[in-house]
Design brief:
Number of strands: 11
Largest sheet: 7 strands, mixed
Distance between the termini: 50 Å
Structural class: alpha+beta
Shape: globular
Strand content: 25-35%
Number of helices: 3
Radius of gyration: 18 Å
Number of domains: 1
Helix content: 10-25%
Order of helices and strands: EEHEEEEEEHEEHE
Strand order of the largest sheet: 1-5-7-6-9-10-11
Length: 182
């Protein structure tokens, strides 16, 4: 069986005014070190470097982890100190490693669960469980066959969960308002 499609990594370039605190090789090394593997395939999870859609959200989105599937790491604004950003991203691997697959509620197949790590202005990390619910399209009523197969997002439920490790003393406060590079 060809395992290349579900195992495609994405190494993106940062948008203008943004950077990735760690290299792609460091991300792969950290994923292997923290045993972030897919038990079905027996390989490490996919790693994707992405730029966030919303730049001016209050807490800074660091990463998204779909347990046993993929890890998405997001770019940072340039005004954040690179060494502090690197420490924070490395710490996010330790946060994501013990998390497991989110169960389907009541056997629903149109459901996807993930964990989000955000950095608040005071330098504290916030872990959120995100549940996305979909509705399968229907063939007919003027829809083409290709659009009937697409899922439509119906709702998103987010719930703050406690961090699986104590990271309070590891992080230095980051000044996310400062526009000058320090």
């Amino acid at each position: 069986m060809n395992q290349s499609w579900p195992f495609k990594d994405i190494d993106a370039r940062p948008a203008i005014g943004r950077f990735f605190p760690i290299s792609f090789a460091e991300a792969v090394r950290a994923a292997n070190e923290w045993q972030m593997i897919d038990p079905y395939w027996g390989r490490r999870v996919r790693i994707c470097f992405l730029n966030p859609d919303q730049d001016n959200s209050e807490p800074l989105l660091l990463g998204e982890y779909r347990p046993e599937q993929a890890l998405f790491l997001y770019s940072w604004p340039e005004h954040v100190v690179a060494s502090a950003a690197k420490k924070t991203v490395i710490k996010s691997f330790q946060i994501f490693a013990p998390l497991h697959h989110i169960c389907h509620p009541h056997g629903q197949s149109n459901f996807r669960g993930s964990y989000l790590v955000r950095l608040e202005k005071d330098g504290q990390l916030l872990l959120t469980e995100c549940r996305r619910h979909f509705q399968q399209g229907r063939y007919g009523r003027g829809q083409g066959f290709s659009t009937a197969l697409k899922k439509r997002l119906t709702r998103i439920e987010e719930k703050d969960v406690p961090l699986p490790i104590d990271v309070g003393s590891y992080l230095e406060p980051l000044d996310l308002d400062d526009k000058e590079a320090v």
